[in-house]
Amino acid sequence: MAFLQSIALVKTLPCLAEPGKIIVVGKPSRSLDEVLPYLATLPNVIAYNPQASALTLRRQPGLITLGQERVSITQVTDTDEGLELLAVLVEAINATWDHRHELVAATGARRAPRPLDIWALLPQSNCRECGEATCMAFAFGLVQGKRKPAEWPPLRTEPTFADRQAALEAIF
Fold this sequence. Notes:
It is built from 6 helices and 6 strands. It is an alpha+beta fold.
């Protein structure tokens, strides 16, 4: 038997991050408390708070936030896409639950990387090789998911930056 039967669409809201898009809000058929620690082990998790039972995942575009009794997905085109995303999310939650014995449940909090954390891994030379005016602008692009670590040429070509590249790729 599946962990989760469905996530019902409760409402839609305007998406402030992307005008013209919506936020889809759903209610799971049961509490997500038990599965959140396993979902927190996924690579696209950007924040997890076990005390609040809240998890945020990055999706392109936007974010998915899961709580005990609520799910929200940002930057959705329309209600039809929202319903499709909720159905896919049910499948992903059930697949994670089915494979929980292969995972080590997360017990500690995990927070989203901050631009200053990312900037500290960059050379801070403002060389513009990445196409941005500053390393801080590139760091913001990484945090927002608009840029990828590999888009900074020295990370790919200079062996002295291999450790920084590995750190950035682990974060993103």
